[in-house]
Design brief:
The structure is a single chain. The radius of gyration is 21 Å and the shape is globular. The protein has 10 helices and 3 strands. Strands 1-2-3 form a 3-stranded antiparallel beta sheet. The longest helix is centred in the C-terminal third of the chain and has 44 residues. Strand 1 and strand 2 form a beta hairpin. About 10% of the residues have low confidence.
Length: about 325
């Protein structure tokens, strides 16, 4: 369910309870994995990445998809039933899965990480919209939002993908790449990654033109050029999705900072001037967020440019959107959850 838990019907709530109960063992496994990752650390340098039990692509996809649905359902039920412990444990487990996939090199892991992070950010938006969330829980959930440099994410994904491709070609023995071919493929991936990383500059990834052909492409061996020509369009869109997700994460950080500031002052600031990082353009459209306070004490934080650019991406228009609009409730609640 993509809707906020407050809008779930009684039938949907009952179905969600049964779904969570039937998957209690998987939830327990998620919590144990989150605890192990917390002990080892989750820095983005990849040194804390845990070994995967299986490299099977279908198993990884099913794992990411099922855990995303299950953990987001658990978080929604926790909000409906005013159980902050359930909300927090579910959020921590989902954030741990996001970090585990993000720490692995290769495009495959990035493609699985992006939907997981979208689920995390949408669940964060549910929490931020709740008036009675305790300040301690808000602060703890804010700490789950780890900023990762977009350019570094792209370079890491492409470097891992090049190595994966070469390894697969070597195992197949089908049209096996020569050493010269392999060197050109790796060089092509490096150039492509650098070019796509530059899309996150002053214009943002959404407004950047397509990647130009390398001036050295004419001397590429046929197989290497064919591989690069095949993957380039897909990789350009993945790079834009990475930048879009980073923009949504940046907006989420600001939303939680405003919630916490509102709790301290019992009011949201009149403008974003002076709010840390509020003046940073997003890496997707290079725009600043819009912000206005409501008449009854709430506030609206949004990035309409990023929302429109996300809808323009061919593979994203029909999917659940990233949260580029945050409706913040009046900051002073009568009783915390």
């Amino acid at each position: 369910m993509g809707r906020a838990p407050s809008s779930w019907s009684a039938e949907e709530v009952d179905r969600s309870r049964r779904f969570v109960a039937a998957n209690a063992s998987l939830l327990a496994a998620c919590e144990r994995a989150a605890e192990r990752r917390e002990r080892r650390g989750t820095a983005f340098d990849g040194g804390a990445a845990l070994p995967w039990e299986s490299a099977d692509i279908n198993q990884l996809w099913r794992r990411a998809h099922n855990q995303s649905i299950l953990l987001r359902t658990r978080i929604g039920l926790g909000l409906r039933e005013r159980s902050p412990g359930e909300v927090r444990r579910g959020m921590e487990a989902l954030a741990a899965e996001v970090e585990a996939y993000a720490a692995e090199p290769g495009m495959l892991f990035q493609l699985y990480e992006l939907p997981l992070e979208k689920s995390l950010l949408r669940a964060m938006a549910w929490v931020a919209a709740e008036r009675d969330i305790d300040s301690g829980d808000l602060a703890a959930m804010r700490q789950l939002l780890h900023r990762r440099p977009v350019a570094a994410t792209i370079r890491r994904a492409f470097a891992g993908e090049a190595g994966y491709l070469l390894a697969i070609e070597g195992r197949r023995g089908y049209q096996r790449l020569s050493d010269a071919d392999a060197a050109e493929v790796l060089d092509g991936y490096r150039r492509l990654a650098l070019a796509l990383a530059r899309m996150t500059g002053t214009r943002g990834a959404a407004g950047a033109a397509g990647v130009r052909e390398s001036p050295h492409a004419a001397r590429y061996p046929t197989m290497a050029r064919a591989i690069l020509a095949l993957v380039r369009p897909n990789f350009e869109e993945v790079a834009k999705q990475i930048a879009a997700t980073a923009a949504a994460r940046q907006l989420a950080e600001l939303a939680f900072d405003l919630r916490l500031a509102g709790r301290r002052e019992c009011a949201y600031p009149e403008t974003l001037e002076g709010v840390p990082r509020a003046g940073e353009p997003d890496p997707f459209t290079a725009r600043l967020p819009s912000y206005r306070r409501g008449a009854v004490g709430g506030a609206l934080l949004a990035n309409p440019s990023a929302a429109a650019a996300w809808q323009a991406l061919p593979r994203c228009a029909t999917s659940l959107p990233l949260p580029f609009e945050w409706r913040l409730p009046p900051p002073c609640a009568a009783a915390a959850m």
